[in-house]
Amino acid sequence: MEVFAASLIAVIMFDFSSGGLIVNLIVSIIMIAAVLATPIIFFVLSYKNRAKINHNDTEITANWGTLFYEFNNDKGLGSSQYYFYFFTRRILFILIQFLLQEWPIIQLSLNITLSVTNLFYLMVFRPFSEMILNITNCVSELGIMMIFIFAGINMMRISEKMHDSMDILLVVFVNFIMYVQMGSSVLVFGKNIVMIIKKRRNRIAPLYSNTNNIVNTSHQEKYVEKI
Fold first, then answer.
1. 3-state secondary structure at position 128
2. % of the chain exceeding 90 in pLDDT
3. Could you write out the DSSP letters of every residue in 58-104?
4. Fewer Cβ neighbours under 10 Å: the N or C end of the chain?
5. What is the DSSP letter of 17?
6. 188 neighbors 133 (Cβ within 8 angstroms)
7. Counting Cβ atoms within 10 Å, is residue 150 exposed (0-12), middle (13-18) or buried (19+)?
8. What is the pLDDT of residues 177-225, one digit of tens each?
9. How does DSSP classify residue 18?
C-alpha cells in the first residue's frame, strides 16, 4: 500500500524540471502498473494451476507454496482467492483515499462497504485452513469497520467531549486489532509446537513397545530352552 500510495503521489505531483524527477515519475508509473497487475496475475496463476495446487504438485509447491499452503484450496475457487481479494481491496482503498478527498462522506461510505464486503467474504468462504486465522481475521475486520464508523462520527458536529471519546475509542480499536493479529500468530505457533511434540511422542512410543516385545520374546525363548 505504501509503495502504491507513494507512486500515486509522484504521478499526481509530476515535475519535469530535472532528470531525477523524470526518472522518479517513470519508476512510479512502473510501480503502479506492477501493483495493479498483482491481483490479476495471482488470480490467473492460481486458476490455471488449481488442479496442481489441490494435489500438492511438487513443482508448484516448491515455487509458489507460500502463496497457497495456508488456504482451503480444495473448497472451491472463492476459498483459494484470498490474496486476490486482499490486494484488490487495498488498491481500491488507496484509490478511494486519493480520488475522493473532496467527498469525505462518499469516501467513508465506500470504506465501510469494502470492510463489510471483506467481512462477508471471510465469514462465508472461510479461506484459511487454520480456524484460528479465520476467527481472528473476522474479529480484526469488525474492528476496522468500527474504526471507520467512529471516524465518521468524528466528522459530525459533536461536542468536544464526544470528539475526545471518539479519539480514545479509535486508539483502543487500533491497538485491539494489532493485539488480535499478534495473538493469532502466537496461538498458531503454539498449536504447531504442540502438534510437533505429539508427533514425536507417537514416533517414540511404538519404538519403545517394539523393544519391550523383543526383550520379552527373547526371555520366553530362553525359558523354553531351559525347560
1. strand
2. 30
3. HHHHHHHGGGTTTB-TTS-TGGG-HHHHHHHHHHHHHHHHHHTTT-H
4. C
5. S
6. yes
7. middle
8. 999 999 998 998 998 898 889 888 887 655 545 555 544 554 545 444 4
9. S
Q: How does pLDDT run across 63-81, given as a tens digit for each residue?
A: 666 667 677 766 667 777 8
Residues 6+ apart with CB under 8 A from 38: 87
Written as nine digits, the cell of 7 is: 507512486
**In contact, 125 and 79? CB cutoff 8 Å:** yes
Instruction: Please give the Cα distance from 95 to 107 (Å, whole number).
Output: 10
Residue 39: name the closest of 86, 94, 3, 98 by CA. Answer: 86
**Distance, CA of 199 to CA of 189 (rounded, Å):** 15
Cα(147)–Cα(175) distance, integer angstroms: 11
What Cα–Cα distance (Å) separates residue 89 from each residue in 4, 26, 184, 193? 13, 25, 22, 33
Distance of CA 177 to the CA centre of its chain: 13
In this structure, the chain runs to a length of 227
What would you measure as the largest C-alpha separation in the chain, in angstroms? 106
Taking the C-alpha atoms of residue 134 and residue 47, their distance in angstroms, rounded to an integer, is 22
